[in-house]
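Holo prediction — DQA.
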Amino acid sequence: MRILVINGPNLNMLGIREPDIYGKQTYADLCDYVKAEAEKFDVEVELFQSNHEGAIVDKIQEAYGKFDGIVINPAAYTHTSVAILDALKAVAIPTCEVHLSDVSTREDFRQRSFVAMIAEVTFMGLGFEGYARAMKYLKDRIS
Ligand code: DQA
């Protein structure tokens, strides 16, 4: 079972960006955590991060026929990107949405999620654990 974990813009700045909201751990720490959890669940995982909407669309398209599930934290594109929503709809790979912070308690402009329209489940406000919960959900859902 293969899962693609996609992280959107500014998540490469974890540890530096707004640590009061996103914590002090870095993107490298997140990658290590995701890989370790994936091993526990016996799933193969590939991590991808980009600050560019089109690169994320390309990666989702390339996942077609190669991955059984997608975990995505689209970051700011959550709230703006019809293109990422359409790409996820196009490949129709079971998808979970993750946010480190609890976006439901934050600014008005974060209250809309395009990806939530296709995601089977959203984990928010759990920090890194949201990624593990999403992988576990996909593992149980697909196997
Ligand atoms: C985020 C929440 C988004 O609103 C924000 O733009 C991010 C990170 C989160 O993980 O909490 O960049 O997706």
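READOUT: The helical segments are 19-22, 27-40, 53-63, 82-91, 129-142.
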